[in-house]
Every structure is written in C-alpha cells, then in structure tokens.
Amino acid sequence: MREGTVMNGFLIVNGLSGLLIVSSLLVTLAGNPANSARFYALQSFILVMLFVALAGATGSGELYLWSFTALLTKVILVPAIMYRAFRRLSDPAIGTGAVMPTALSIVGAAVALILCFVVASKVTLPAADAIKPALAVSLALFFIGLACIVAQRNILKQVFGYCLMENGSHLTLALLAPNAPELVEIGIATDAIFAVVVMAALGSRIFDTLHTLDARQLTSLKG
C-alpha cells in the first residue's frame, strides 16, 4: 500500500514539473513585467504543490516546512515586490524586449529540456531513479532562466531570468536532498528576496534616469 502511494506521489511530482516549463515560457514571453510577476507567482505555487507531493512520497517533514516557507516568499512576497516595483515601468520601444521570437523561444526551451533529459538519464543516484523527469525539468528551468538573462534586452525580464534560475536550483536541491534542514530553505528564500529587492530598485532607478529598459543602452558609465 505504501509503495503504491509513493509511486503515485512521484508521478504527481513528475507531472507538476512539466507545468513548470510551461509557466517559465509564460514568464519570459509575457507582454509586460506585471504579467510576468503574476506568472512567476503561478509557477511558484506549482513549485509549492510539487514540494508537498514530494514530501508525501518521501516522508520528509522538512519538505512540508519548505512548502510553507516557499508559499510565503515565492508565491506571495517576491511577486508582490516585483509587481509593485514593475507595474509602472514600460518601454514601448522594445516591447517585451526579446531577441528571439516566440516560436524560436519555445523550440529553444524544448531543445534544452531534451538535452537535460539525456543528462538526467545518466544520473545513477538511487534517490533520483523515480524523479528523473522532474530532475531534467529542474535543470532545464535553470538554463531557460540563464537564456532569459542572455537573450532579453528588457532589464526587468532579466530579473525574472534570475528568478527562474533560482527556482530551478531550488527544485534540484529538493529532489536530491529532500531531508535537508529547513535552515537551507530559509537561506535560499532570504537570498532570493534580497536579490529581487536590490534588482528591482536598480531597474526602477535606471528607468527613472535613462527612461529606458533596454540593456543595450547601458553602454557607458558617467562619473
């Protein structure tokens, strides 16, 4: 009975991980930063549900605490900070600020996911046997965030790229070390909050000074 419950839990984990890829594309391709903040909150809620399912499958009490902390920080606090800071900022000259068109972005995400599946299939850790699809997604999420930072012209979208990378790293840790102390989760959450606050303040200051969110315009420093 317990074995069947565990397997069902892992199936839920792998299924929810697929939604993380969809939500990451929504974050990066949304038309304005305020919508990106909403989609990031949605992705973080999916991540919380994944933590709960993983906690049930592994019997990890620590992951239940992770879920609660992530709900407060990633689903509520961080998106609220970004939404409040970014909703007044828009740069019609660059639109969404994407270098690659939507279709190419989706293809790129698919290629990254396939490559990460190949890498995850080579992992021989016993703890990773049942959650290799979710592990592949966590790696792909990291690289999608990295690609967002590199390929986006919009400064604020680059902030969301960092957030996607952080979610991917967070998921990888939860999958491979579900019994890690709650202190680790608090450290991750605190780091994300302070990083977002600093980057949101810098983005707002840049827009107020230069009236643009185009990273290509930041080519010189004035003393």
TrEMBL record:
PANTHER family: HYDROGENASE-4 COMPONENT E
Organism: Azospirillum lipoferum (strain 4B)
Gene3D superfamilies linked: 1.10.287.3510
Annotated gene: hyfE
Transmembrane segment boundaries: 6-27, 39-57, 63-86, 98-121, 133-152, 183-202
Protein topology in the membrane: Multi-pass membrane protein
Lineage per the UniProt record: Bacteria, Pseudomonadati, Pseudomonadota, Alphaproteobacteria, Rhodospirillales
Keywords: Cell membrane, Membrane, Plasmid, Transmembrane, Transmembrane helix
Protein's recorded name: Hydrogenase 4, membrane subunit
UniProt xrefs under InterPro entries: HyfE-like, NUOK/Mnh_C1-like
Subcellular localization: Cell membrane
UniProt keyword annotation of Transmembrane helix present: yes
Pfam families associated with the record: Oxidored_q2 (PF00420)
